[in-house]
Amino acid sequence: MVRQAHQTVARGVQPSVTAATLLVLALTGALRAQSVVKMATVVPQGSVWDKNLKQMGEEWKEATGGRVTVTVFSGGAQGDEATVLRKMRLDALQAAAFTAVGLGSIDSAFNVFDIPFFFDSYDELNHVTDTLTPVIRKRIEPKGFVLLNWGHGGWTQVFTKKPVQTVDDLKNVKLWTSAGNDRMVQWFKANGFQPRAMAMTDILTGLTTGMLEGLPTTPLAAMLFQWDRQTPYMLELGLAPIVGAGVITTRAWKAIPDADKPKLLAAADGVEKRLRVEVPKLDASAVIEMTRRGLTVTKATGPEWRTQLDGLAKTMRGESVPPEIFDLAMKARDEFRRQQKAAQPRK
Question: From CA 195, how far away is CA 197, in angstroms rounded?
Fold first, then answer.
């Protein structure tokens, strides 16, 4: 009788234990199927870039039925780009929208977009970017990152506390350059400039305290970060485009089901396409708005600007830009120029 009772209890308990185990396993599997992506960026909250990143996050969530969710930390809330990069390597953050500063720390190939006077137009830039995309994507994957998309930031001009028109004028300005790019700092010093290396998040403080007297940046960024309030002069020089990009860690990307990845890349590509259209317009309108509130636009004078900066471009090949990337970009750029010239009607 006792043995029979024990057997009955054992038989009664067995299904409950099995059901509980299956429930735990099911819940564990569901949790593992969910990916929470924390994305950081220094772009201001409410800016065109911030809005597009958050739209992408909503599209990721909708496209995956909630399996992938994105939280965007804007305005440098997670620190400067060097700090964000460290956090990504520790898996405290899984993704970021970087400027050229952070991208160059991942791979020097991104420095190709910093070459002065290399590009003449957005169309030319887009053509070269499309050519370089598969090459750069392949370069950074072994380093633990997946390229999601590109993002326009505008076209670099020079904002200063006092009017600047000549190269000698600029050499008398304490000029911001990004911290961590020692080669660029040394080039500036060797050519008579006064570089002040610091994090992008410290620019406003530097301008307010007088540690900085000028910086190369885009009109849109100058207005959004309110740097123009400390630098009421803009030298219209058109140095180079500001090119950013969205990246995610390989670890986080691998955790996402393969079936979902094309949907995520499509949403990321949507960000790139929208910024290609929106940012050039906003950059131009920013000049108009800042002029209304006191900005004075000056024009560069003298041929020494291009002569001086062409020297920088030549030293960048092999120094800060891998030769094969520099050559591929130049080949794509020159090919685009030939196509454009051939398409022009003959007079």
Answer: 6
Please state the length of the chain.
347
We report the CATH number of the domain holding residue 44 as: 3.40.190.170
From residue 251, give the alpha-carbon distance in Å to each of 34, 45, 89, 104, 248. Answer: 14, 27, 10, 20, 8
- 228 assigned to some structural domain: yes
| Structural domain count of the chain | 1
Q: For residues 246 and 50, what is the distance between their CA atoms, to the nearest angstrom?
A: 12
**What confidence tens digit (pLDDT) does each residue in 221-262 have?**
999 999 999 999 999 988 899 999 999 999 999 999 999 999
Find the helix or strand (DSSP H, E) in which 238 lies: none
Question: By residue range, what is the domain housing residue 82?
Answer: 36-329
Q: What is the mean pLDDT of each run of 10 residues along the chain (347 residues)?
A: 45 48 44 80 95 97 96 95 96 96 94 91 96 97 97 95 91 90 80 90 94 96 95 93 97 96 97 96 96 93 74 81 96 95 78
Domain membership of residue 74 (yes or no) is: yes
User: Closest Cα partner for 246 from 98, 71, 45?
Assistant: 98
pLDDT tens for 270-284 read 999 999 999 999 999
Whether 91 is in a domain gets the answer: yes
Token code pair at residue 276: 């290609």
**CA nearest to 224, candidates 13, 7, 41:** 41
- The contacts of residue 156 (CB under 8 Å, 6+ apart) are 216, 217, 218, 237, 238, 239, 240, 241, 242
| Pick from 146, 147, 280, 130: nearest CA to 219 | 280
Q: What are phi and psi of 95, to 5 degrees?
A: -150, 165
Where does the chain have alpha helices with state H?
Answer: 2-33, 48-63, 81-89, 100-106, 122-140, 167-171, 182-190, 203-209, 219-224, 250-254, 261-292, 304-316, 323-343
